[in-house]
C-alpha cells in the first residue's frame, strides 16, 4: 500500500501511531498523545519532523498553527507557545457580526472576518442570552441522494470547524429563522431550507417519542446523510420501532420512501447494529420491514453480509427466503420457459451485476441440454432462479456451511435457497470426493471379509474317526501364511491412506476434530486393525484374537455406514438409527435400573443358587433372568424348588416382573422407537441436507488456497434450472399425515394469498373509481352550493330592491299628495287672485 500510494506512516518512538493515541490534525500537522505523561506530540506530515510539547501549551500551539502554517519551523517555537496567544496586530477586534461581514476562517477562540477584523467568541457568547452558543460544529459537510456535497449550517451552533466557507454568513443573516428548527443547506450557490428536529426528538422520553411518532411519523421518514432514517435514529428503541411499524401499516406502500438503509455509504445500518448487539426482537422487526417494503434484490446486501450471523443467532428466516431478496426469478426471452429436456441443473457463475445473467443462457445451460426434440416429444415447463447471495458465497465461502452444520434449527434446510446452495456444493466438489474414498474403502472391505472367512474356516479342527486309546485324534489345517499376509497388506495400505486423511483433519480442525463422533470410529478402526494384525501373527491366545476380530468387524461396518450416507436412499436409514439410539438413551438407562432391581430380588429369593444354563457367568445369572422375562422368555424350572413359605411370594414377584418388564416396558420401548421414527421421517429432507452440510464442511476444510479462490467452486452467484411442477417434490419426505398436512397448508396459504392480493387490487381499483366519482360529486355539490348561494343573493337583492321600490313609491305618493295639496292651494289662490282682479277691474270701470 505504501508503494502504491507513496505514503509515510506516522511514527511515535519508531512505532506506528495507534488510533487511540491520535487526537486531531491541524493543516499538515498531526497532534497525538505522547508516551511521556502530560506531553503531546506534533509531527509534520510532509517532512516527518516531530516535536514534543507540554499539554498545557497545546491550545496556544494550535492557534499559532492555524494562523501561520510555518510556525512549526520557527526558531523560537518553544518560547512562543509558552506565551499567551494574541492575534496579529494588523487585525482589528470587533464585538459583533453584521450581515455584510464575510467569514474568512476561524479557530477555537477567534473568528476572522473580511477587512482584517476578528471576533472573540467568548465575548460574543456573553452578549447572548442563549446557552446554545456554547456548542461547536456550526458547519458540517453532508451529502444528498446524488452524492453532491452540501454545507449545512445549524443556527444552534456558532463555531466553525473543518472547512473555510467564503461569502456565506451574509446569506444566513439575510433571513430570519427560528434557530431550533431550521438548517440552511448551500449546494452550488443555491440556498435551501430544511427542518430538522432530530436533536429534540432523541432527547425526549419514550412516552413523548411515541406520541410524536403517532402524530407526525411522515416527517421522520426522510433520509438525512449521516443520520439515516427514523429507523437509524431509534435502532435501539424497541417501543418506538413498534409504533413506527404500526403507523406504517396503515400507509400506502407505494408512497413510502426507502426505510432501512445505511447512514452513509459504507456505514452501519440498523440491522447491523441490532445484530452486533444480539437484539433479536429488533432484528425480527427490521427483517419484516425489509421483506415487506423493500422486497427487491438491490436491498439484499443489507442481509447478505449478515446471513451467517443471523443463522448463528437462530433468527427465523423463513419469510426472508421466500421473498425476492435472495431469490431472483429470471424472466427473459433468452431463457426458454418450455423445453423438452426437463433435467434440473445448478450452475455457478461470477457476475459483476446480477442483471448480467440475462445474457448468459448459452454459457450456463446451452451446451448441457438435449435440444434434439421431435415434434411429438413431451415439453416441460421450466423456471430459472438466481441465488442472490454474492457476499455469503464468495467472500465467506466456508462460513455458511459451517454455521449450517452447527445449527439445531432444521427449518433452515427446508427452503429452496439453502437446498440449492448445498446441492451445488455437493455436486460440484463433495459427492465425487467421498465416492472416490468409498471405492477405495470397498477394497479394504473385500480384502478384510475374505481374510475373516478364510482364516476362520482354514483354522477349523477336524476329528479323525479312528480312535487311539479311546480318544479321538484331532488334525489342524494351518492357513496359507502368504495369503494372510497379502490380504493384510492390502487392508493396511488402504488404512494408511485413511490415516493420512485423519491426520490432515486433525491438523486443520485441531480440537474440533473430537467433536464429531464419526472421527472416534475412524481412528479406533485404524488402531484396532493394527492390533489385530499384530496379534494374528504373534499371539497364541485365540480368545484375545477373537475379541479383537469382533471389534474390527464392528468398526469396519461403522465406517461403511458413514460412506453409505453419500446416497440419499441409505442416508435417512443411518440417520434414523442414530436418532433412535439418541432418543432411547435415558429410557435405556432407566430400563437397566429396573433390570438391576429385579435381578437383585431374584438373587435373594433363590439364594444365589447356580443355574446350569448360565454356567460361566453365574454372578450375572439372575440379572439375565430378569432380562429374559422382559423379552418374554420365561424360565420356571427352579420355582418349584422354593420352600413353601416363599413359593407364593416368588410367584407374586414373577407376576410383577412380567407386568413391569414385559408388558409395560416393551410397549414403552416400541412407542419411543415409533415416535423417534416419525420424528426422523418428518424431517427427512432437512436431516439429509444437514448430513450433506457436515460432509461439505469436512471437504472444504481440506481445500488449499487455490481451491478456496477457485471461481468454479466458489462463484458469487448460483443459477438453478428446474421443471415447474404443480406439486411440491419432497424428495422422499415421509408419505403420511404430516406431508399431506404441510402440502395442504402451503396450497391453501398460496391460494388465500393470491385471492387476497386479487381482492386488494380490485378494492384499490374500486376505491380509485369511487374517489373520482366523489370528486365529481364534490365539484357538482360545490357548484350547486355556489348556485344556491347566488340565488339567495339574487333573492335578497330582489327583496331589497322591492323594499326600496316600495319605500320610493310611498315617498313618491307622499310627495305627489303634497304637490296636489300645493296645486289645490295655488288653484284656490289663483281663483282668489282672479276674483280679486275681477272686482278691481269692475271698480276701475265704474
TrEMBL record:
State one molecular function term (GO): monoatomic ion channel activity
Which cellular component terms (GO) are annotated to the entry? plasma membrane
Instruction: Give the highest taxon in the source lineage.
Output: Eukaryota
Q: Record's InterPro entries?
A: Ion_trans_dom (IPR005821), TRPV (IPR024862)
Q: Which residues form the Ion transport domain?
A: 452-682
Which UniProt key words apply to this protein? Answer: Membrane, Repeat, Transmembrane, Transmembrane helix
State its location(s): Membrane
Task: Report membrane topology.
Answer: Multi-pass membrane protein
In its UniProt entry, what is this protein called? Ion transport domain-containing protein
Tell whether Transmembrane helix is among the UniProt keywords. Answer: yes
Q: Which gene encodes it?
A: Contig7870.g391
> Which residues span the membrane?
438-457, 481-500, 544-566, 586-608, 620-636, 648-673
Establish whether keyword Repeat is in the entry. Answer: yes
Q: Which PANTHER family match?
A: INACTIVE (PTHR10582:SF2), TRANSIENT RECEPTOR POTENTIAL ION CHANNEL PROTEIN (PTHR10582)
Q: Name one GO biological process term.
A: calcium ion import across plasma membrane
Which organism is the protein's source?
Answer: Stylonychia lemnae (Ciliate)
Amino acid at each position: 500500500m505504501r508503494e502504491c500510494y507513496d505514503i509515510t506512516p506516522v511514527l511515535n518512538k519508531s512505532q506506528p501511531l495507534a488510533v487511540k493515541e491520535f487526537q486531531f490534525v491541524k493543516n499538515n500537522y498531526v497532534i497525538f498523545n505522547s508516551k511521556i505523561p502530560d506531553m503531546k506530540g506534533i509531527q509534520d506530515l510532509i517532512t516527518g519532523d516531530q516535536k514534543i510539547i507540554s499539554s498545557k501549551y497545546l491550545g496556544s500551539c494550535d492557534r499559532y498553527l492555524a494562523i501561520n502554517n510555518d510556525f512549526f519551523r520557527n526558531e523560537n517555537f518553544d518560547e512562543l507557545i509558552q506565551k499567551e496567544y494574541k492575534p496579529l496586530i494588523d487585525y482589528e477586534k470587533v464585538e459583533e457580526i453584521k450581515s455584510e461581514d464575510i467569514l474568512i476562517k476561524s479557530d477555537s477562540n477567534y473568528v476572522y472576518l473580511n477587512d482584517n477584523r476578528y471576533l472573540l467568541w467568548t465575548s460574543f457568547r456573553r452578549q447572548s442570552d442563549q446557552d446554545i452558543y456554547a456548542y461547536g460544529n456550526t458547519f458540517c459537510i453532508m451529502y444528498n441522494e446524488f452524492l453532491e456535497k452540501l454545507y449545512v449550517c445549524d443556527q444552534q451552533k456558532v463555531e466553525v470547524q473543518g472547512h473555510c466557507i467564503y461569502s456565506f454568513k451574509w446569506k444566513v443573516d439575510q433571513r430570519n429563522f427560528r434557530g431550533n428548527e431550521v438548517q440552511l443547506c448551500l449546494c452550488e450557490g443555491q440556498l435551501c431550507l430544511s427542518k430538522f428536529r432530530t436533536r429534540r426528538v432523541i432527547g425526549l422520553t419514550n412516552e413523548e417519542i411515541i406520541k410524536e411518532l403517532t402524530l407526525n411519523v411522515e416527517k421522520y421518514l426522510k433520509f438525512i446523510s449521516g443520520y439515516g432514517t427514523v429507523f437509524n435514529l431509534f435502532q435501539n428503541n424497541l417501543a418506538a420501532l413498534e409504533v413506527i411499524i404500526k403507523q406504517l401499516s396503515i400507509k400506502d406502500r407505494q408512497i413510502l420512501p426507502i426505510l432501512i438503509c445505511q447512514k452513509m455509504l459504507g456505514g452501519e445500518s440498523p440491522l447491523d447494529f441490532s445484530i452486533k448487539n444480539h437484539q433479536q426482537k429488533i432484528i425480527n422487526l427490521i427483517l419484516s420491514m425489509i421483506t415487506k417494503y423493500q422486497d427487491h434484490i438491490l436491498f439484499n446486501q443489507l442481509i447478505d453480509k449478515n446471513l451467517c450471523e443471523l443463522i448463528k443467532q437462530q433468527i427465523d428466516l423463513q419469510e426472508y427466503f421466500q421473498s425476492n431478496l435472495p431469490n431472483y426469478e429470471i424472466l427473459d426471452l433468452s431463457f426458454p420457459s418450455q423445453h423438452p429436456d426437463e433435467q434440473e441443473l445448478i450452475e455457478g457463475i461470477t457476475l459483476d451485476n446480477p442483471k448480467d445473467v440475462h445474457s448468459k443462457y448459452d454459457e450456463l445451460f446451452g451446451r448441457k441440454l438435449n435440444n434434439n426434440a421431435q415434434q411429438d416429444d413431451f415439453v416441460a415447463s421450466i423456471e430459472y432462479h438466481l441465488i442472490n447471495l454474492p457476499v455469503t458465497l464468495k467472500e465467506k465461502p466456508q462460513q455458511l456451511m459451517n454455521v449450517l452444520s452447527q445449527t439445531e434449527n432444521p427449518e433452515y434446510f427446508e427452503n429452496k435457497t439453502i437446498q440449492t446452495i448445498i446441492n451445488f456444493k455437493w455436486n460440484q466438489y463433495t459427492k465425487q470426493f467421498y465416492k472416490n474414498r468409498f471405492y477405495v474403502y470397498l477394497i479394504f472391505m473385500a480384502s478384510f471379509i475374505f481374510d475373516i472367512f478364510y482364516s476362520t474356516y482354514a483354522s477349523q479342527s477336524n476329528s479323525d474317526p479312528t480312535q487311539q486309546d479311546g480318544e479321538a485324534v484331532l488334525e489342524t489345517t494351518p492357513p496359507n501364511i502368504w495369503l494372510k499376509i497379502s490380504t493384510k497388506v492390502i487392508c493396511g495400505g488402504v488404512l494408511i491412506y485413511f490415516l493420512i486423511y485423519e491426520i490432515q483433519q486433525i491438523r486443520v480442525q485441531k480440537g474440533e476434530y473430537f467433536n464429531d463422533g464419526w472421527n472416534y470410529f475412524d481412528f479406533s478402526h485404524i488402531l484396532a486393525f493394527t492390533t489385530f494384525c499384530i496379534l494374528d501373527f504373534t499371539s497364541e491366545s485365540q480368545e484375545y484374537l477373537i475379541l479383537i476380530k469382533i471389534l474390527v468387524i464392528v468398526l469396519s461396518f461403522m465406517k461403511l455406514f458413514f460412506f453409505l450416507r453419500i446416497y440419499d436412499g441409505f442416508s435417512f436409514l443411518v440417520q434414523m438409527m442414530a436418532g433412535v439410539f439418541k432418543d432411547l438413551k435415558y429410557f435405556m438407562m432407566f430400563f437397566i435400573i429396573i433390570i438391576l432391581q429385579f435381578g437383585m430380588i431374584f438373587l435373594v429369593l433363590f439364594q444365589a443358587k447356580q443355574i446350569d444354563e448360565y454356567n460361566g457367568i453365574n454372578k450375572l445369572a439372575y440379572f439375565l433372568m430378569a432380562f429374559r422375562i422382559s423379552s418374554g422368555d420365561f424360565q420356571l424350572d427352579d420355582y418349584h424348588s422354593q420352600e413353601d413359605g416363599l413359593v407364593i411370594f416368588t410367584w407374586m414377584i414373577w407376576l410383577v416382573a412380567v407386568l413391569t418388564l414385559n408388558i409395560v416396558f416393551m410397549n414403552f420401548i416400541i412407542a419411543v422407537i415409533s415416535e423417534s421414527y416419525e420424528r426422523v421421517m418428518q424431517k427427512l429432507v432437512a436431516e439429509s441436507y444437514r448430513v450433506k452440510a457436515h460432509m461439505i464442511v469436512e471437504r472444504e476444510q481440506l481445500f488449499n488456497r487455490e481451491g478456496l479462490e477457485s471461481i468454479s467452486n466458489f462463484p458469487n452467484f448460483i443459477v438453478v434450472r428446474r421443471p415447474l411442477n404443480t406439486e411440491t417434490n419432497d424428495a422422499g419426505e415421509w408419505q403420511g399425515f404430516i406431508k399431506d398436512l404441510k402440502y395442504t397448508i402451503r396450497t391453501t396459504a398460496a391460494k388465500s394469498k393470491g385471492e387476497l392480493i386479487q381482492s386488494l387490487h380490485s378494492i384499490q381499483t374500486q376505491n380509485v373509481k369511487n374517489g373520482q366519482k366523489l370528486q365529481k360529486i364534490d365539484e357538482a355539490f360545490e357548484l350547486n352550493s355556489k348556485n344556491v348561494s347566488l340565488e339567495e343573493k339574487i333573492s335578497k337583492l330582489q327583496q331589497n330592491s322591492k323594499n326600496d321600490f316600495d319605500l320610493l313609491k310611498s315617498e313618491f305618493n307622499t310627495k305627489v299628495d303634497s304637490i296636489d295639496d300645493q296645486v289645490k292651494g295655488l288653484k284656490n289662490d289663483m281663483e282668489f287672485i282672479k276674483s280679486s282682479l275681477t272686482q278691481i277691474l269692475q271698480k276701475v270701470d265704474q
